[in-house]
Amino acid sequence: MTPDEILQGLYDNTLVGNGPAVLDLTDQGLSAGMQPGTLLFDALIPALEEVGARFERGDFFVPEMLIAGKAMAGSMEVLRPLLADTGVETVGKFVMGTVKGDVHDIGKNLVNIMLEGAGFEVIDLGVQVAPETFLAAIEKHQPDIVGFSAFLTTTMPMFKANMNALEKSGMRGDVLVMVGGAPVTQEYADVVGADGYAADASAAVKKAKALMRAKRAPVPA
């Protein structure tokens, strides 16, 4: 296969969530001497962006997003260490976790995959993440953004507990905060003082990118 055929195949198969084909084409591309960054930025990321666009139009639903994300995740397992070795610059660093008391992670995992596909380095802390665990991860990894996920209305108050812990630690000014999950709204995000809210994985990537652009924009003199 030519490089163009490999890229087109990667795009098409990521779009439909054909994980084995995506992995095989990734291996073929690397064996042919193609750069990991080319596979990522010229095929995988555009495919995931198209998945997000179709979701927003109502042509795709959560299952389609999940299988496309999983197909890309398989390729990322291969590409991630190679990208690190070649020094491909990430869009930003993102620490993510489901808050204490909540064990739901499907939405969080989908957001993680979409963020990685968009060029973010993601540190996933898993579920049932206590405020002190978030603080330790922020101190260790120095992320640009921390994400709090909650699926239950009963665990949403942990957003405020996490924000209070950030304030108390003195690290609130060092990191942007995004929140999300099934019961979460923009209004609730505003009440707890988050910098960003997203209703779904596609919107989360757009918001995270927007926050990074704003963060890196030059400050007017």
UniProtKB/TrEMBL annotation:
<dbReference type="GO" id="GO:0050667">
    <property type="term" value="P:homocysteine metabolic process"/>
</dbReference>
<dbReference type="GO" id="GO:0031419">
    <property type="term" value="F:cobalamin binding"/>
</dbReference>
<dbReference type="GO" id="GO:0046653">
    <property type="term" value="P:tetrahydrofolate metabolic process"/>
</dbReference>
<dbReference type="GO" id="GO:0008705">
    <property type="term" value="F:methionine synthase activity"/>
</dbReference>
<dbReference type="InterPro" id="IPR036724">
    <property type="entry name" value="Cobalamin-bd_sf"/>
</dbReference>
<feature type="domain" description="B12-binding N-terminal">
    <location>
        <begin position="1"/>
        <end position="91"/>
    </location>
</feature>
<dbReference type="InterPro" id="IPR036594">
    <property type="entry name" value="Meth_synthase_dom"/>
</dbReference>
<comment type="similarity">
    <text>Belongs to the methylamine corrinoid protein family.</text>
</comment>
<dbReference type="InterPro" id="IPR006158">
    <property type="entry name" value="Cobalamin-bd"/>
</dbReference>
<dbReference type="Pfam" id="PF02607">
    <property type="entry name" value="B12-binding_2"/>
</dbReference>
<keyword id="KW-0479">Metal-binding</keyword>
<dbReference type="InterPro" id="IPR050554">
    <property type="entry name" value="Met_Synthase/Corrinoid"/>
</dbReference>
<dbReference type="InterPro" id="IPR003759">
    <property type="entry name" value="Cbl-bd_cap"/>
</dbReference>
<feature type="domain" description="B12-binding">
    <location>
        <begin position="91"/>
        <end position="221"/>
    </location>
</feature>
<keyword id="KW-0170">Cobalt</keyword>
<protein>
    <submittedName>
        <fullName>Cobalamin-binding protein</fullName>
    </submittedName>
</protein>
<dbReference type="Pfam" id="PF02310">
    <property type="entry name" value="B12-binding"/>
</dbReference>
<dbReference type="GO" id="GO:0005829">
    <property type="term" value="C:cytosol"/>
</dbReference>
<dbReference type="GO" id="GO:0046872">
    <property type="term" value="F:metal ion binding"/>
</dbReference>
